[in-house]
Amino acid sequence: MVDGTVHAAMTGVYYAGVAPWMLCEENAANAIAAPLNGEAPFSYQDTEEDRLRCEKEMTANPFPITKEGLDRAKPLYDIYCGVCHGVKGDGQGVLVTVPDAKYPAAPKNLLGDDMIGAGNGRFYFAMVYGKNVMGGYTDKLSYEERWQVMHYIRSLQAKSKNLEYSEKANSLSNIEKPAEQQKELTTF
User: Fold this and answer.
1) DSSP class of residue 71?
2) Are 127 and 149 spatial neighbours (Cβ–Cβ below 8 Å)?
3) What dihedral angle (degrees, nearest 10) is formed by the CA atoms of 125, 10, 155, 99?
4) Which domain holds residue 34?
5) 31 and 120, same domain (yes or no)
6) In this predicted structure, what is the pLDDT of residue 182?
């Protein structure tokens, strides 16, 4: 991405109430238009090449970590993700743990080091297009909800490593910003 520009997938942030400076320094009103439903353009095709490109390019979650966001994301995770990936994110959801379950593929353990180290684009791409037997969730989760669910998954990962992931601190990674730190960044 060219310095000073905004990735098209980030344009929905403006309509979600995030600080306009995240879109463009000059004038957020001149940003690429995104529908008021909170959706944003997604410029990746459902190919392995674009999945890898998405993981590399979509790094930072455009929404700060907040208690409100985590609280809203938990039931969404439980409904759409936990049934397969488990309430802890360990891949032990009810579809695979019920007696005599015949689930065709083991869900990904989201607490594994490979997933903790995975870029946000990997998660976002999977939420859009799905992966293996998992379908996409763009018809179920809005643009912001997908990012908030990603925050919730990160909080599960942090908990599994006895780390903090909250609006006050993030010791899991240096990418996602807690709301408290975000306030410091936006104070002029």
Assistant:
1) H
2) yes
3) -30
4) 1-41
5) no
6) 65
